[in-house]
Specification:
Strand order of the largest sheet: 5-6-10-8-9
Distance between the termini: 16 Å
Strand content: 15-25%
Bound molecules: flavin-adenine dinucleotide
Shape: globular
Helix content: 25-40%
Largest sheet: 5 strands, antiparallel
Radius of gyration: 24 Å
């Protein structure tokens, strides 16, 4: 390979020289402290350091960089806000890869209110897009706690989900068209500006969720929605998971179009948030095993809509214990803030082994029972904090170290993962509901995907990226 012919310094200097010649406006950093910062992941974990990090300002500059890297067979890592959770933006080797960070491609190009779409460059931060679309009285649907940093391109490349997938679908359902730079530098447009388009293979869907392994997304045309005029939340305490699922189904039968978020919260989340001072008191007088935090949106008058929801819930009292409708918007926000803080509270409580899984709703009860049994056999008193997007069967199944554990909790990670993923497989779920595969779960991908599906994925990768320069070592062991 190119690098082997040169010493590290001369190799590095040659590449930096060449990159500088590509365009005078591209910022290139090789200062170790800066490169370390971009090479470590959101949790601050650092395995290897990239050769340098570059910040192109246009699709054309991205194209020139890729053309150069492809010719020299230099690996590149596309990077957005670096909020991904599966080591997909971290180098797999030291001083060999170039991080291409898209943050300077940050223009919102146009909003089209008639066709309900917005066209943006891929480095636009999601919160900026949400605010912009909102200021035009429309809604951009992606809702997750990382939207202050995550970018449009990163969210497309991971097919980000979040809290309101039940109403608006995941990112994939909201892309109309993409501009993508391929490994050899060619800039292509895929998709169109219309919702109905059955003209051949949907290549935009292939780039969505590809985690930077097929091309660099530089522009996107995304759907937007009319802004609902009323919003209502409620928090419901429920005895067991069967009732949680039945209640969720009953609510969907009646209010399908209106429910945009439906989150499962276990009692342990209240204990953690109280212990670590995110809330002062429990919201309910009597605690229960589970809680459902539901958010509705509608175009009705709020008083009429609230009456409808309350009347229906009265007919379902056999399924729940108690219910709180917030007095005002600030109490509603307090409930949602509590939901957001669960992750932070568990982090303060001890070491955490997280699982981002989905299990079909009708099998969730058996999955919970089986996993409790098997995990207790490995580590009695392990704390299970299973919360999240129950509306679309995606559970953040997080395990917190037991009190006074003599051994390092992370020593149990492999054995626990094997047990958990086998159970997910047994119940026909997914080992990665929304965070993707990256370098973290590639072994699991090869274990749980059928050989024929995996082989086809690798063939596709090789068609798009003959020299294997795009995010090498992510998704597959290539
Ligand atoms: C606190 C927190 C909460 C989160 N909640 C959720 C959640 O609810 N739902 C969810 O789905 N995810 C969630 N995530 C994960 C993460 O935020 C999302 O996956 C996010 O969309 C990634 O965007 P990013 O810009 O940070 O991408 P990065 O982390 O920078 O990159 C992610 C992947 O996309 C690739 N990539 C980035 N930009 C491009 C591009 N322009 N072209 C091609 N490939 C590119 C990278 O190579 C990498 O493989 C959460 C993360 C955090 C830290």
């Amino acid at each position: 390979m190119y690098k082997n012919n040169l010493t590290k310094d001369s190799f590095e200097n040659k590449i930096l020289d060449d990159l500088n010649k590509i365009s005078k406006t591209i910022s290139i950093y090789d200062d170790e402290e800066i490169v370390k910062n971009y090479s470590s992941d959101w949790r601050g974990r650092l395995n290897n350091i990239a050769l340098c990090v570059v910040f192109p300002n246009s699709s054309l500059e991205v194209s020139r960089i890729l053309k150069y890297c492809n010719e020299k067979k230099i690996s590149i890592i596309p990077q957005g806000g670096n909020t991904g959770l599966v080591y997909a933006t971290s180098p797999i080797e030291n001083y060999k890869e170039i991080i291409i960070n898209l943050k300077n491609l940050n223009n919102i190009i146009r909003i089209d209110k008639i066709n309900k779409l917005v066209e943006v460059e891929s480095g636009v931060i999601i919160d900026k897009l949400i605010d912009y679309v909102h200021s035009h009285n429309f809604l951009f649907p992606l809702l997750m706690t990382s939207t202050g940093s995550s970018q449009v391109g990163g969210s497309i490349a991971t097919n980000a989900g979040g809290m309101n997938v039940i109403k608006y679908g995941s990112t994939r359902q909201n892309i109309l068209a993409l501009e993508v730079v391929l490994a050899d530098g060619e800039i292509i447009d895929v998709g169109s500006n219309v919702i109905k388009d059955n003209s051949g293979y949907s290549l935009k869907d292939l780039f969505c969720g590809s985690e930077g392994t097929l091309g660099i997304i530089t522009k996107a045309t995304m759907k937007i929605y009319p802004l609902p005029t009323c919003e209502l939340s409620c928090l419901i305490s429920v005895q067991n998971i069967k009732n949680v699922i039945n209640l969720h189904n009953e609510l969907q039968q009646k209010f399908n179009e209106n429910i945009d978020r439906c989150e499962l919260i276990p009692e342990i989340a209240f204990d953690l948030c109280k212990k670590h001072k995110f809330i002062d008191n429990h919201f309910f007088k009597n605690s229960q095993k589970y809680y459902l935090l539901v958010n509705f949106k509608s175009f009705e008058k709020i008083s009429d809509f609230k009456d409808r929801v309350q009347n229906h819930l009265v007919s379902l009292t056999n399924l729940y214990d108690d219910i709180i409708f917030p007095h005002n918007q600030s109490q509603a926000q307090k409930f949602w803030k509590f939901r957001e803080n669960i992750t932070e509270a568990q982090k303060l409580d001890g070491k955490v082994i997280p699982f981002d899984i989905s299990v079909p709703l009708d099998k969730l009860d058996s999955f919970f029972k089986d996993s409790l049994l098997q995990l207790n056999n490995i580590l009695p008193n392990i704390k299970i904090n299973s919360f999240g997007h129950i509306g679309d069967s995606n559970i953040h199944f997080n395990l917190i170290e037991p009190e006074n554990l003599a051994e390092d909790f992370f020593n149990f990670e492999i054995v626990i993962s094997n047990v958990l993923y086998d159970l997910v497989d047994k119940y026909s779920g997914s080992i990665s509901a929304e965070h993707g595969i990256g370098a973290l779960k590639k072994q699991e991908l090869s274990k749980y995907k059928s050989k024929s599906e995996l082989d086809l994925m690798i063939k596709i990768k090789k068609i798009f990226d003959t020299n294997n320069i795009l995010n090498r070592g992510k998704l597959f062991e290539l």
